[in-house]
Amino acid sequence: MDTTGTHIASGAIFFLLLLCLSSLSIADVIYSPVELFSINCGSNSSLSTRDGRNWTADIKFLSENKDSVAAPALTPSTLEGPYTDARFSHSQFTYSFSVSTGPKFIRLFYSTSYQNFHRSKAYFSVKAGPYTLLQYFNASLNADADDDPDNFLFREYCINLRDGERLNISFIPSTEDSYAFINGIEIVSMPPFLYYTHPDDDITGWPQPVGLNTNPFPIENNYAMETKYRLRVGDQQIPASQDTGMLRSWDVDNKYVTTQSVLSLDIESGIKLRFTKTPNYTAPDTVYRSLRNMGSNGTVNMGFNLTWQLPVDSGFTYLLRLHFCQLDPRIENPGDLSFFIFVQDQLVEDWADVLGWSDKQKGVPVVRQYAVVIPGNQQERLNLSLKMHPNPQSLAKDAQINAIELFKINDPTGNLAGPNPDPPLPQSPKRVPLESSNKKSHGTTMRTLAAIAGSVSGVLLLSFIAILIKRRKNVTVNEKGTSRDNGSLFVPTGLCRHFSIKEMRTATNNFDEVFVGGFGNVYKGHIDNGSTTVAIKRLKQGSRQGIREFKNEIEMLSQLRHPNIVSLIGYCYESNEMILVYEFMDCGNLRDHLYDTDNPSLSWKHRLQTCIGVARGLDYLHTGVKQVIIHRDVKSANILLDEKWEAKVSDFGLARIGGPMGISMMTTRVNTEVKGSIGYLDPEYYKRNILTEKSDVYSFGVMLLEVLSGRHPLLHWEEKQRMSLANWAKHCYEKGTLSEIVDSELKGQIKPQCLNKFSEVALSCLLEDGTQRPSMKDIVGVLEFVLQFQDSAVNYEDSSSHSTVPLSDCSENTGSSMTSDGDRSNGRMESFVLIPDDVFSETKNPKGR
Ligand SMILES: *[C@@H]1O[C@H](CO)[C@@H](O)[C@H](O)[C@H]1NC(C)=O
Ligand SMILES: *[C@@H]1O[C@H](CO)[C@@H](O)[C@H](O)[C@H]1NC(C)=O
Ligand SMILES: *[C@@H]1O[C@H](CO)[C@@H](O)[C@H](O)[C@H]1NC(C)=O
Ligand SMILES: *[C@@H]1O[C@H](CO)[C@@H](O)[C@H](O)[C@H]1NC(C)=O
Ligand SMILES: *[C@@H]1O[C@H](CO)[C@@H](O)[C@H](O)[C@H]1NC(C)=O
Ligand SMILES: *[C@@H]1O[C@H](CO)[C@@H](O)[C@H](O)[C@H]1NC(C)=O
Ligand SMILES: *[C@@H]1O[C@H](CO)[C@@H](O)[C@H](O)[C@H]1NC(C)=O
Ligand SMILES: *[C@@H]1O[C@H](CO)[C@@H](O)[C@H](O)[C@H]1NC(C)=O
Ligand SMILES: *[C@@H]1O[C@H](CO)[C@@H](O)[C@H](O)[C@H]1NC(C)=O
Ligand SMILES: *[C@@H]1O[C@H](CO)[C@@H](O)[C@H](O)[C@H]1NC(C)=O
Ligand SMILES: *[C@@H]1O[C@H](CO)[C@@H](O)[C@H](O)[C@H]1NC(C)=O
After folding, report:
1. Which residues pair with 415 in a beta bridge?
2. Global pTM?
3. What is the pLDDT averaged over residues 311-330?
4. Domain assignment of residue 20, yes or no
5. Where is the Protein kinase domain (predicted)?
């Protein structure tokens, strides 16, 4: 070997050494963030901390209100970090960052002991782009309620930026004498599909829904999330520096475990983990080398559920991610260890078999995801429960887990903020940390630590007290800052009546007949001295997210008049009330005549007539008014039927004025928020943000199949091929086995040619390329033809017996069904009574309406 070669080699080694030295002190960087800003707010000097972070001065990122004051903390913090300085202001200030496209973590760091400013006057909101991260945030209250004895607060969010967007983070004092402040901000990019769903993912890979309907729930790019919990099981927190490169910290779970359990640490640390099911940056190795189980011992474990209780804010959807890895030398085959998983007491896995999930490979981390809807008004704290129990058929009677992540998804208005905790009760005893967790673990094989049984953490206790206090108080929305102006409704007078709250009380006998809805209740009422029966939809008081839909619905509906569009009679918008008054629809909604119902089945002819009515209504929206109106939430639950069985399109909360026919609207922010109901959503719309009236055509196509098959468009318990009705129908159409999908109630009623024509038009609505889909006008034509053809075949088998189904008494059958998200009161599944599908569509699509 000649000397030049050696020189080059040593040069390269030197260069490599330099690289190593200059890189962070972070262990095993698996993912290198493209962007990493750590901002020491209020400081003009930079600061390096041992966790590998370089905190830089904030002034160059301040884009607004440069005269906010930098103020030093009262006591220099014992914790290393950006805590010794803070930026304060009595008026709004904004940081602006130029960052690349793609998802980012935003982290906010707070210390609440500082001088010059009164601690209890920190009361503010934080907004990042279109999302509200904190609202009316009382920093001292939050710091005090926190289990941490220090005055620190930490919040982490995930948001996804689009091309060319600057990320602006604004701090807005909530009242005149309050101020906003911040100690540290961090922005770190993350891999694009770590938490967000890949657009090409099959629905089987989407988070499984829990708590409501059965629709899988992709985490769309336009959602923002707040990290509520990132818990590893183990005896020590994993600090940011030990993460896979994104500076996430992993807390311990023991505060949230409420039953007996056993912790195993450093399992098989000699075996290399194989990241074949998840990317290697998903979590640090140590996460997968400790697990919590029940303390496997024969049938002893059958008597209880291994349980976690995680306090969360109600009124949001949560993404729950469970991490597993099988390293136990005693588990050799799939089935050796299998358990049940319950989320919110709902069985989500009846055969959780980690080895099975990882293709029989040991040491392969796997992640399971669930979308958990926690109904409520955003003012309460509730527990999200996770329970595990051995499957009796499993060889080993145990259950195990390695880590739990829980994210809150923004609501339809882009809000992520929950309520402040209530003040601690006077003289409440100071809480002591439950477990000192500075024991260092160093066993090499399985080492077990008995964990606390039935511990109750201070946070949980506090939130429980908080709820008691809440109950005693009169909850009013008109707190400082939240009061609503009532003059901002621009409804052309004469088009739509205005009712006073007094009239509404009279009409409903003081809101007597309640049918619980999600954001509102629906009542049957009588106006004009009892001469007119109406449906009265009362939005929940203080439902901030409701205002936008409320206005939208009034503004849209008051201008529309068509026999196939539901009529809005008027509204009431007074003090805290938002009420909509509609014509009463005796026969309820279409879905309630198709499935999950006790109502008699609708005949084929009636179904066809209904579809034609809906198609006419949609055609009117698309072509009959000055501007194209895109409904965006066409589905059977939003089709109402009057006493003559005339179909009417309802629920215009999501409707949008479109561009000229066929021209997509995708430029302004408001239009790029994908909304609608999962199962009916146009893929072109949710994948590529292209919204045209053809998105309604798509949803209408799904509805046609729903009508034909009498089932929900997505049934996740069905075998994969049948899970999505649209895919199943395509498949059957291609195979020529269309009769498979036909509702068994319709057998013998449909003439084969009609079935073909009907299916063809339905499937043409579902074409991937929107421009290829027919217009509603064309569809009306085809469906009318199908109906005529069917009529001409009256004698086809025994259709006559069906077409005479007595339909006139629908109002008895459906109780007093009134509007789409109203009545489910006739003794069907509890979950439907409490949370109608319509609300589901809102919670499922938490981006603003
Ligand atoms: C922090 O600064 C040090 C010294 O300037 C540098 O070596 C290191 O790479 C920086 N770390 C990051 C994360 O930028
Ligand atoms: C992580 O996975 C990527 C892609 O599979 C691979 O290129 C990389 O070497 C892995 N990193 C480590 C530290 O194993
Ligand atoms: C930093 O700020 C302090 C106080 O605001 C000031 O005294 C000092 O001169 C500043 N240093 C630099 C380098 O600007
Ligand atoms: C962010 O702030 C910058 C600077 O103030 C401003 O030019 C830009 O329009 C803002 N961007 C957004 C999306 O609000
Ligand atoms: C914030 O909480 C403190 C108690 O920690 C209280 O004294 C103060 O009034 C609260 N501020 C506001 C604006 O509610
Ligand atoms: C199970 O527990 C019982 C009582 O605690 C104990 O006697 C027995 O040895 C345990 N069995 C195993 C397999 O650990
Ligand atoms: C475990 O939890 C589920 C869901 O709440 C419940 O149905 C079951 O009875 C529980 N099992 C035991 C043994 O407590
Ligand atoms: C949440 O769970 C904890 C522990 O079981 C319990 O103490 C607390 O009361 C629960 N909170 C609510 C709101 O149910
Ligand atoms: C609180 O509620 C009670 C009973 O509903 C009512 O009499 C009282 O006026 C309310 N107080 C406020 C401040 O709204
Ligand atoms: C809001 O409406 C109420 C009752 O109609 C009225 O008394 C009040 O003056 C209105 N407020 C505003 C700001 O218009
Ligand atoms: C309702 O009845 C009252 C008194 O009976 C009458 O004055 C009023 O005109 C009636 N209103 C309507 C809308 O019929």
Report:
1. 132
2. 0.56
3. 93
4. no
5. 508-786
Given a contact cutoff of 8 angstroms between Cβ atoms, the answer to whether 560 and 491 are in contact is no
User: Is 219 near ligand 8, meaning CB less than 6 Å away?
Assistant: no
Give yes or no for a contact between 559 and 550, defined as CB atoms under 8 angstroms apart: no
Q: 3-class DSSP state for residue 319? A: strand
Q: Find residue 181's DSSP bridge partners.
A: 88
The predicted pLDDT at position 408 comes to 96
What is the three-class DSSP state of 20?
helix
- The arithmetic mean of pLDDT across residues 213-231, rounded, is 85
CA distance 315 to 843: 8
Q: Does the beta carbon of 178 sit less than 6 angstroms from any atom of ligand 5?
A: yes
Q: Is 120 in the pocket of ligand 5 (CB under 6 A)?
A: yes
Q: What is the number of structural domains in the chain?
A: 4
Q: CATH no. for residue 234?
A: 2.60.120.430
Pocket mutation for ligand 11, best pick of 497, 503, 529 (most atoms within 8 Å of C-beta): 529
Express as a percent the part of the chain with pLDDT over 90: 36
Residues pairing with 577 in the sheet:
574
Give yes or no: 633 in active site.
Answer: yes
Give the C-alpha separation, 712 to 624, whole Å. 30
Cα distance from N-terminal residue to C-terminal residue, the chain: 70
Average pLDDT, integer, range 632-647: 89
In this structure, the strands spanning 403-409 and 339-343 are unpaired
Token reading at 323: 């991490």
* Token pair belonging to 280: 């290697």
Q: How far is the CA of 374 from the centre of ligand 8 (A)?
A: 15
690 and 823 co-located in one domain: yes
Q: How far apart are CA 538 and CA 541, in angstroms?
A: 8
Closest CA to 773 of 681, 704, 701: 701
Q: Is the CB of 462 under 6 A from ligand 8?
A: no
> Per-residue pLDDT for 781 more than 90?
yes
**Given the CA of residue 140, which atom of ligand 5 is nearest to it?**
5
DSSP code at position 713? S
What are the φ and ψ backbone dihedral angles of 736, each rounded to 5 degrees? Answer: 75, 25
In a shared domain, residues 243 and 369: yes
Atom number of ligand 2 nearest to Cα 281: 1
Q: Which residue from 675, 619, 612, 563 is spatially nearest to 220, judged by alpha carbons?
A: 675
Q: What letter represents residue 490's amino acid?
A: F
Instruction: Give 802-821 pLDDT, tens digit per residue.
Output: 444 444 555 444 433 344 44
Strands of 600-675 (E only): list them: 629-630, 639-641, 647-649, 656-657
- CB–CB of 656/629 below 8 Å? yes
Average pLDDT, the chain: 76
Non-local (6+) Cβ contacts of 729 within 8 A are 705, 709, 738, 741, 759, 762, 763
Specify the pLDDT at position 540: 67
CA distances from residue 25 to 28, 250, 714 in whole angstroms, order as listed? 9, 18, 48
Token code pair at residue 795: 């004698």
Show the domain range for 702.
Answer: 662-844
Q: Is residue 447 part of a domain?
A: no
Distance 312 CA to ligand 8 centre (A): 11
Helix (H, G, I), strand (E, B) or coil at 160: strand
Q: Which atom of ligand 1 is nearest to the CA of 53?
A: 13
Asked whether the CA dihedral 27, 31, 34, 37 is positive or negative, the reply is negative
Nearest CA among 413, 360, 451 for reference residue 670:
413
441 touches ligand 4 (CB under 6 Å):
no
Q: Which of 409, 432, 464 is the last residue of a domain?
A: 409
Per-residue pLDDT tens for 121-167?
899 999 999 899 999 999 988 888 876 666 788 999 999 988 778 99
Burial of 651 (0-12, 13-18, 19+ CB in 10 A): buried
